[in-house]
Specification:
The complex is a heterodimer of chains A (about 425) and B (about 475).
Chain A lengths: L1 H11 L11 E9 L4 E10 L2 E6 L9 E4 L4 E4 L1 E6 L37 H7 L3 E6 L8 E9 L7 E11 L1 H6 L5 H16 L3 H5 L8 H11 L4 E6 L2 H13 L5 E5 L7 H7 L3 E3 L18 H7 L4 E3 L12 H10 L4 H6 L3 H6 L16 E4 L10 E6 L2 E2 L5 H9 L14
Parallel strand pairs in A: 1-4, 1-5, 6-7, 9-10, 10-11, 11-12, 12-13
Antiparallel strand pairs in A: 1-2, 2-3, 5-14, 7-8, 8-9, 14-15, 15-16
Helix pairs in contact in A: 4-6
Chain B lengths: L6 H6 L1 H4 L3 H6 L31 E9 L5 E10 L2 E6 L9 E4 L4 E4 L1 E6 L38 H7 L2 E6 L7 E9 L17 E5 L2 H8 L13 H28 L8 H10 L4 E6 L2 H14 L3 E6 L7 H7 L2 E4 L17 H7 L4 E3 L10 H14 L6 H4 L5 H6 L17 E4 L10 E6 L2 E5 L23
Parallel strand pairs in B: 1-4, 1-5, 6-7, 9-10, 10-11, 11-12, 12-13
Antiparallel strand pairs in B: 1-2, 2-3, 5-14, 7-8, 8-9, 14-15, 15-16
Classes of the chains: A alpha/beta (about 425), B alpha/beta (about 475).
Chain lengths: ~425, ~475
């Protein structure tokens, strides 16, 4: 209760509509629960959490009820690979905290230190229905990008849900470039770093530095090296993915997920067997680099058919256009993915990858992230009509909607447009 | 009942499209092929060798048809014959030589025309050896021609074809004040760039406003200051200096043409700028901010030329009234924003707000990914506009993808709409192309079937992808 109250106090100052988590019921929904579709469903939210879901769910007497009259209702969308909130204007380095090419630290970089819930792209992301984001580091000074986090998009002061949720590592062409110039160099560094971290602090008593990591970075890499923190590895080429599968076979305790995996379909069965989930961009279908010669929009369908837990993201602009996750999911459906699997790839699968039970779903006990839509959420013509995060109704305004409203009429006969606000 | 469409619908949209109208006429005075007149400059030394591929007549039966100029016709037939649009009518009887395709429940539109692409000049794979899209060596490189950088084996052409793109403008990059000439191509794979060039299309000139030139030349290279331009006022001074030179150059040539004497010395850079001042070369200018566009408009008047289109134009919505008045097109993304300061005020309603002001709106890609689904970009813009109270029909919005870009490129007399006699650049869609689930099923270019969703073996594979992982895979 204390946690909820604090969240609400913060939320009220940045444009959330409610002053407290509403106890609210949504009725007559075409509901995606995160696991299955239910027609004419009811969702009951109390104290910011889902307490009942289903066609027969009872609405407590006197509870505020929204009859959505058959509209689509989904959990808040969970974007599994975003940089929203850590960069305001991409090319302005003073506003860009995604990467630190000149830093002496690598694994120790905690991206949540750079998170600004009031960045304009957070609201822009939210009003398209994305309520949770996994925020990843960019490409910095090393194959270790640092540690990413999970946040909600409410804009509230305390909207980081899980700090240090994962360690981000670049392999493939990017990792080679950051490791001295070759794949073997990247792998040598990664293996040495695993030893450094696993033997921390003992080996650092004898030697001041590890083979690959400084004291601070070795400490930071410790949990991931022992399997208690997820390692998210950026990798594309089939042969590079096989190397990661080998690593997992050698160190089965490692908790690994892949991002990119443009040639994942070529090793889909091996990935499924190894239990390694992937985050892919369903748009990727060009041999844009030699490591992605096999890229195809059918990657998604083939991975899912092979049983690989597959989440979607839009890579081309992962900070300001995180919202396009819905469009890429729709395109995945156009390219052979079942509609429910596409919804799963932007709700429950991301939550599972990051170990966030109760997120990306609307089941009893889930967080109260609810989005009501004016159409099929995966259609490019659809948009949310109401959004709740932790049971708090959210503003549908952003700086973009304010600009739109100012310029809808260009009439300056009385006063400059600058007076319209 | 047979009713041939075209005229009435053209009238319907006349008001909305008048903004682009000037460009129609410019296509009539484009650079003529190698002129034999003694001493005259050959304005077309790298001529198109494209000729339409053989086709037999095709009748698309019972489709929903968007004619690209605002008309929507449910349950109509479209006949393609001899490489052209032969007829559009409620019922067309097929003669024996006609292949009939049942298009019930499907949609037929003009092919998509992307007026901002770097395919071929920034091809896949994006290796260092392939960075041929921008002659960054100086702020004024009006002398370079994008067609001389095109690698016709770019796999991106095949992907954009699958997205229903039948023609595109390939532009140099935007580092320079004057980036060089663009080229318009048919999206038909060829061994040579000349084999793709759109026959008789005018040349274009790429210019750039704002951050890029001052960043690259002012702050580039590590020195302080790196050189000119270092600021937006430096940009303007740079353009104006070049236009003054171009005006002098033009005067010399005009005088020589009238009075004879010694032929003036050729200058490749000034040839291109003179082409603009002569009204033969169309100006396509990368420009994000509204206030900068207003400066550029004044500059074009100062030197007596016309800006055909502002590209990216993320702030066109702020001066849509002025753009309508000046008859300048805006080539826009649906929703890109924020990656640089001059893109900070981008909004998803930009395209419909420009259209609503009576100005010419074009959906462009500037991306090898975006070009594959420009129909979805239009759909996003259209629906965001409607939510803001701007009612535009689906059929009108298709003009953003075909008629308006064709007008901006001076090729609207040949393509960009489904009207009798025009090139049969046509897409048959599996479903409503403003749905995310629709795919281009068949793409005809000049009546020839160039892409077939259901016949992967019949689709092109570039040299680069032969013998590589995924060769011939459905992409």
């Amino acid at each position: 209760m204390i946690r909820t109250t604090l969240a609400l106090l913060a939320a009220s100052s940045i444009g959330a509509l409610g002053t407290s988590a509403q106890d609210i019921a949504v009725q007559n929904a075409k509901l995606w629960t995160g696991d299955r579709m239910i027609e004419n469903a009811t969702v009951v939210i109390e104290d910011g959490e889902v307490t009942a879901v289903g066609t027969g769910a009872a609405i407590p007497v006197g509870m505020e009820t929204i009859d959505v009259e058959g509209a689509w209702v989904t959990p808040g969308i969970f974007a599994p690979y975003s940089r929203a909130g850590i960069v305001e204007v991409g090319s302005e380095v003073s506003t860009n905290d995604t990467a630190a090419g000149a830093s002496v630290y690598t694994a120790a970089l905690d991206m949540s230190d750079g998170f600004n819930p009031l960045e304009t792209n957070v609201a822009v992301t939210r009003i398209q229905g994305v309520t949770r984001i996994a925020v990843a580091p960019g490409f910095g000074a090393s194959l270790f990008g640092g540690q990413g986090f999970i946040a909600n998009t409410s804009g509230a002061a305390n909207s980081v849900d899980k700090q240090k949720a994962f360690m981000f590592i670049n392999l493939g062409e990017a990792g080679s470039g950051l490791s001295g110039g070759s794949r073997p160099a990247a792998w040598a560094k990664l293996r040495a770093a695993l030893v450094d971290a696993r033997t921390y602090p003992a080996r650092y008593f004898a030697h001041n530095e590890g083979d690959a990591l400084s004291r601070v970075d070795a400490l930071a890499f410790g949990p991931a090296s022992r399997g208690s923190q997820l390692i998210l590895i950026r990798v594309s080429r089939a042969s590079d993915i096989r190397k990661v599968i080998e690593l997992k076979a050698e160190s089965s305790s490692l908790n690994i997920a892949l991002v990119g995996a443009e040639e994942g379909w070529m090793v889909a069965d091996e990935l499924a067997k190894a239990g390694i989930p992937v985050i892919i961009d369903p748009f990727a279908n060009l041999p844009s680099r030699f490591e992605s010669l096999g890229a195809t929009q059918y990657n998604a369908a083939r991975l899912i058919d092979a049983g690989v837990p597959t989440a979607f993201s839009y890579f081309t602009d992962d900070s300001h256009q995180t919202r396009l996750i819905l469009q890429v999911a729709g395109n995945a459906v156009a390219n052979g993915v079942d509609h429910e699997d596409a919804l799963r790839a932007i709700t429950t699968v991301p939550a599972q990858i990051y170990g966030m039970a109760g997120y990306g779903s609307l089941q009893s006990g889930s967080v109260g992230d609810v989005v009501i839509w004016d159409g099929d959420p995966l259609e490019v013509t659809s948009a949310p009509t109401k959004i709740f995060i932790d049971g708090v109704e959210q503003s549908l305004e952003s700086r973009q909607t304010r600009l739109r409203d100012r310029y809808l009429s260009l009439d300056e006969s009385e006063k400059p447009l600058a007076y319209k606000h | 009942m047979k009713r041939t469409i075209g005229f009435a619908t053209a009238l319907l949209l006349a008001a909305g499209l008048a903004a682009c109208g000037d460009n129609d006429r410019s296509s009539d005075k484009k650079g003529s092929p190698a002129n034999a007149d003694a001493g005259e400059i050959n304005k077309n030394p790298y001529p198109s060798t494209y000729t339409p591929y053989p086709s037999s007549p095709v009748l698309l039966k019972d489709a929903t048809v968007y004619d690209g100029i605002g008309g929507a016709f449910d349950g109509y037939d479209v006949l393609l014959s001899g490489g052209n649009i032969a007829e559009i009518a409620e019922t067309i009887e097929a003669t024996d030589d006609v292949e009939v395709i049942d298009a019930t429940g499907k949609f037929v539109t003009p092919g998509i025309i992307d007026n901002h692409s770097h395919l071929g000049v920034y091809p896949s794979p994006g290796v260092s050896a392939h960075g041929d899209g921008n002659e960054v060596s100086g702020p004024v490189t009006a002398e370079v021609w994008a067609e001389h950088s095109i690698w016709p084996q770019d796999p991106g052409f095949t992907r954009s074809l699958a997205g229903g793109v039948t023609s595109m403008q390939i532009l140099p990059g935007s580092a320079n004040l004057f980036g060089g000439r663009g080229v318009i191509v048919k999206n038909v794979l060829s061994r040579t760039a000349q084999g793709m060039k759109f026959p008789d299309a005018p040349y274009t000139l790429k210019m750039a406003c704002g951050e890029n030139p001052k960043r690259v030349y002012g702050y580039g290279g590590g020195g302080f200051p790196g050189g000119a331009p270092f600021s937006r006022m430096g940009n303007l001074a740079g353009y104006r200096t070049s236009w003054i030179k171009a005006a002098e150059y033009k005067e010399k040539w005009d005088k020589w043409e009238e009075e004879g004497g010694d032929m003036p010395a050729r200058d490749l850079e000034l040839d291109t700028l003179k082409g603009v001042l002569d009204g033969e070369i169309l100006v396509h200018m990368h420009c994000y901010r509204a206030d900068e566009m207003a400066q550029i408009i004044d500059m074009s008047k100062e030197f007596g030329y016309k800006v055909t289109a502002f590209h990216h134009a993320v702030e066109s919505y702020k001066i849509a009234d002025k753009l309508a008045e000046e008859g300048i097109c805006s080539s826009m993304w649906a929703d890109w924003w924020g990656f640089k300061m001059e893109a900070y005020d981008g909004i998803p309603e930009n395209i419909p707000m420009v259209h609503n002001a009576g100005a010419c709106a074009v959906v462009h890609s500037d991306s090898d990914i975006g070009i594959q689904r420009l129909n979805q970009e239009a759909a996003k813009a259209l629906s965001d506009g409607r939510r803001a109270g701007i009612e535009i029909s689906d059929a009108e919005a298709w003009a953003w993808l075909s008629a308006n870009p064709a007008k901006s490129l001076g090729i609207f007399d040949q393509t960009g709409s489904l009207e009798s006699g025009k090139d049969a650049d046509v897409v048959l869609w599996t479903a409503d192309p403003f749905s995310v689930y629709a795919k281009a099923e068949k793409v005809f270019i000049d009546g020839a079937l160039m892409y077939d969703l259901n016949d992967p073996d019949g689709n092109p594979v570039t040299d680069f992808e032969l013998g590589q992982p995924g060769e011939g895979d459905t992409k």
